[in-house]
Amino acid sequence: MNFHIMTLFPEMVMNGLSTSITGRAMERGLITVEAVNIRDYAENKHNTVDDYPYGGGAGMVMQAPPVWRCYQAVASRLEKRPRVIYMTPQGKVFSQKIAQELAQEEELVFLCGHYEGIDERALEMICTDHLSIGDYVLTGGELPAMVMIDCISRLVPGVLNNETSADVESFHDNLLEYPQYTRPEEFMGKKVPEVLLSGHHKNIEEWRRKQSIRRTLERRPDLLADASLTDKEKKYLEELLAISEPLC
Ligand code: ADE
Q1: Angle 8-14-20 (CA atoms, 0-180°, nearest 5)?
Q2: Would you say the pTM of this structure is higher than 0.90?
């Protein structure tokens, strides 16, 4: 999986993504990350890439020509027209489902804006997707691009040591992850649940599924509508709902 990030702050994304698991994935050649500086495609002596908005208003707008030239430099090295994702709070909100879909691509281009955004003509010519990381406004698209690349990378085979963990963790089956424990067996009087020490795999599996259901009901009940539960698990959920409903 090859990520290309068009940005005014290449060191920000490279420093962040070269750390920890994504950094190791880069070293192992499982992913590549290149940050391309849009400013390198400015064609004026001060290397400026922004200007005042036509029609007036606050702030500056990133100009179309350097963004377009930067895109052409990236795309010309690729075999086919890539998906180009514009980071914007106006986009569809990124999710695990979108990450899974994007993880199928071989090449992904992320376009990070700054100031009051990018000239609409460049966006129309280049972008295939508009994505947001949530309903709040950041100063630029770099952090959202890093969030998405981190999330997509962990779905690339081999990036996580434990092959199964990308599946099991939060949002698999639309359920949150069960609680985890490690040594010591007792911490400040709090013991690890007995079943986890039993070595009985079937019971452990059942306990974990129940914990996932319970936790999803408590913290993210909206996810349960699309969770795939067995008949037995549905019954368990109904029992939990009966307990939690007020007896009015
Ligand atoms: N740029 C600024 N805010 C953003 C957000 N919430 N998501 C994606 N890109 C952004």
Answers
A1: 150
A2: yes
Pairing of strands 61-62, 186-187: unpaired
Is the C-beta atom of 7 inside 6 A of ligand 1? no
**3-state class (DSSP) for residue 93:** strand
Q: What is the pLDDT of residue 164?
A: 59
In the CATH scheme, what is the homologous superfamily, with its name and number, of domain 170-244?
A: tRNA(m1g37)methyltransferase, domain 2 (1.10.1270.20)
Compute φ and ψ for 173, nearest 5 degrees. Answer: 60, 15
Q: Is 133 in the pocket of ligand 1 (CB under 6 A)?
A: yes
Query: How much distance in Å is there from the Cα of 190 to the middle of ligand 1?
Result: 41
Provide the pLDDT for residue 29: 98
Q: Nearest C-alpha to atom 7 of ligand 1 is from which residue? A: 132
pLDDT at position 115, please?
A: 78
Own/partner contacts of 165-168, CB < 8 Å, gap of 24 or more, are none
Ligand 1 near 139 CB (within 6 A): no
- The tokens of 53 are what? 């908005």
Spatial neighbors of 170 by CB under 8 A, at least 6 apart, are 176, 177
Q: Is the CB of 148 under 6 A from ligand 1?
A: no
Superfamily of domain 2-153: SPOUT methyltransferase, trefoil knot domain (3.40.1280.10)
